[in-house]
Write a structure and sequence with these properties.
The protein is an alpha+beta fold and about 280 residues long. It is built from 6 helices and 18 strands.
Length: about 280
C-alpha cells in the first residue's frame, strides 16, 4: 500500500525554522500499532494522521497526533501543518477546515490575527507567507506547589507551578526572558514525569511573552514550537497583563513566532508554515 506523506515546518516563514511535522492523509483506518510505528520511523515531534469524514459530520476530517513514543491529546504545530497541506497540496477550497480530535472540534482558517507588537525580528519575507489561524480550547490550569522533580530538574524553578490537567503539562513562570533562554533542564530527571511536559515562560523583551517546552517522557527533549501550550499560556498571560491579543515567541534553537487571541472559552493561535518535503510511504 502507498500513502502520501508531507513534512512541513510550522510556525515559521523560513525553511529549517519553526517545528517540523509529518502529515499523512489516510483513505482507511490503520491499526494504532501501525500509526505509532510510522511516527517512530518519522522521528519527528509529531506525525498527524487525517481521514475524511462523511459529509453529515460536524467536522471535515478526523485528526490524531503521535510522537515517536505515544499518542497525544492535542498538538498545535502538526494541526497547522495539516491545514497547510489541505489548503496548498490537497485542493481544499473552503476558507476553513474542521478537525474532529480527542480535544474536541478544532478549526483552522485562512488569515491572521493582527499584531499589536512591532517586532524587531520580523523577516522581510514574513508577510509574503500566508498565515493560518487555529481555533483551540482555552485550557484551565491549577496553581500548585512546584513538584520536587521539576525543582530538581530546573535550576531556579519557582516555588509555585501551574498544572494543566487537560493537556498533562506543568507550567512555571521564570523571572525574565534571559532565564528562559539560559534554562537547561535535566532531561533524565524530567523523564520521571512520564507523559507530562514542562512549559517555562516569562514576559518577552520584544513581544508579549516567551516560552520553551520540554517533554522527554513523551520522546521530546525540547519541542521547537508548540502551538497547543498556547491554549494555557494565552489565558495565563491574559490574566496577568489584562489584555487579550498577544505576539509570542518560542525560544528553542529553531525558534518560532505565534500571534494569539483569547476569545472566551477558545484561543485563536495563528502561524505560518513552509513545505520541506513530500513523498510516498510504502506499507505491506
Amino acid at each position: 500500500m502507498r500513502y502520501p506523506i508531507y513534512q512541513v515546518d510550522a510556525f515559521t516563514d523560513q525553511l529549517f525554522g519553526g517545528n517540523p511535522a509529518a502529515v499523512m492523509p489516510l483513505e482507511t483506518e490503520l491499526p494504532d500499532e501501525t500509526l505509532q510505528a510510522l511516527a517512530a520511523e518519522n522521528n519527528l515531534a509529531e506525525t498527524a494522521f487525517i481521514i475524511r469524514l462523511p459529509e453529515n459530520n460536524e467536522a471535515d476530517f478526523r485528526i490524531r497526533w503521535f510522537t515517536p513514543t505515544i499518542e497525544v491529546p492535542l498538538c498545535g504545530h502538526a494541526t497547522l501543518a495539516t491545514a497547510w497541506v489541505l489548503f496548498n497540496k490537497m485542493g481544499w477550497s473552503e476558507d476553513r477546515v474542521y478537525f474532529q480530535s480527542k480535544s474536541g472540534l478544532l478549526g483552522v482558517s485562512r488569515g491572521e490575527i493582527e499584531s499589536e507588537v512591532e517586532s524587531e525580528s520580523e523577516s522581510e519575507s514574513e508577510e509574503d507567507v500566508d498565515w493560518l489561524t487555529m481555533d483551540f480550547p482555552n485550557l484551565p490550569f491549577e496553581e500548585r506547589p512546584t513538584p520536587a522533580v521539576i525543582k530538581a530538574a530546573l535550576s531556579g524553578a519557582p516555588d509555585r507551578a501551574y498544572f494543566v490537567p487537560n493537556d498533562t503539562n506543568y507550567m512555571v513562570e521564570m523571572p525574565d526572558e534571559a532565564s528562559v533562554i539560559a534554562a537547561e533542564p535535566d532531561s533524565q530527571i524530567l523523564k520521571t514525569l512520564g507523559g507530562q511536559g514542562l512549559i517555562i515562560t516569562s514576559r518577552g523583551q520584544h513581544c508579549d511573552f516567551v516560552s520553551r517546552y520540554f517533554a522527554p517522557g513523551a520522546g521530546i527533549a525540547e519541542d521547537p514550537v508548540t502551538g497547543s501550550i498556547h491554549s494555557v499560556l494565552v489565558p495565563y498571560w491574559a490574566e496577568k497583563l489584562g489584555k487579550t491579543r498577544f505576539d509570542a515567541r518560542q525560544l528553542s534553537r529553531r525558534g518560532g513566532r505565534l500571534r494569539c487571541e483569547l476569545k472566551g472559552d477558545r484561543v485563536a493561535i495563528a502561524g505560518q508554515a513552509v513545505l520541506y518535503m513530500e513523498g510516498t510511504v510504502y506499507l505491506p
